Amino acid sequence: MINTLPRQWMNEQRRLGHELCLVLDSQNERDTRQLLVKSSGHDHYLSVYNATTLANLADAGPFIFTLEQSGNRRLDDLLDHPERNWGWLASVERGALRGLVHHWQQRLIVETRPYQALYRFHDNRVLSRALKHLPPEEYPAFLGPAISVCYWDGAAWNTAQNPAPGTYPVPDKPLWLRTPLPHPQASEIRRLNAHRYLLAEHVEAYANLAEEHDPDAWLRERLALADTWGWLEPEQLEFLLIQSLQAPGFALPPEWEVRGDESPVEHFERVRQLVGFWRGKGPI
């Protein structure tokens, strides 16, 4: 039985003269993507990663398709199996496909080290979590040209309306990147991103560490220490990881421990000044 809410939403959006788009997870829905590519004109779909720094991942990245009235049946399998988390639906002004793709191309990379990662906007769980926590006035910068969206939130179908569809620059500190994650998922994402950061930026020191320690266990311990100290800002975590890699035996000296009722900020500033003094770069 096909879910009724997305069908009703699609019919209403078409009645209003809007064009429908399917945001598809190409990696996990390759057969569906191929079927849609073969049955769609070249101007009715785009790879989001194409023509970006992620072009080498284009085949596994998300695709966005415009949906013709006659193509509804191709969605039956997707709508019947939302638990596959295949993506979501959006409505736009006619001819706005390229604008929608460009909007998300600008939001693909989370630029903060050591958390630099891809933003999985095409994952309906990511979209659902963002819309749940964003105030409606933040929807335009997040959804861009999308007039309305329809998505599976893990338990039911939902829709959201964009109060001011259009073209917007990426905010300096996008609120959707500060959406809370379930703790186990957040911890795993942070560990993976820290691991990738060390491989990319400090591979020699990281390799030396691996000769004496299990890198995964060491990294988990470092991240747990950051949590204990309340060093949750990217600058603080990057500092902790680099200094730990450079420390004798990959262990920090006792002077790094929290003193009395130091706040995380006071603690971090004291340790940073201490490191600078040891290196002859400033007073203590």
Automatic annotation (TrEMBL):
<feature type="domain" description="DUF4123">
    <location>
        <begin position="22"/>
        <end position="139"/>
    </location>
</feature>
<dbReference type="InterPro" id="IPR025391">
    <property type="entry name" value="DUF4123"/>
</dbReference>
<dbReference type="Pfam" id="PF13503">
    <property type="entry name" value="DUF4123"/>
</dbReference>
<protein>
    <submittedName>
        <fullName>DUF4123 domain-containing protein</fullName>
    </submittedName>
</protein>
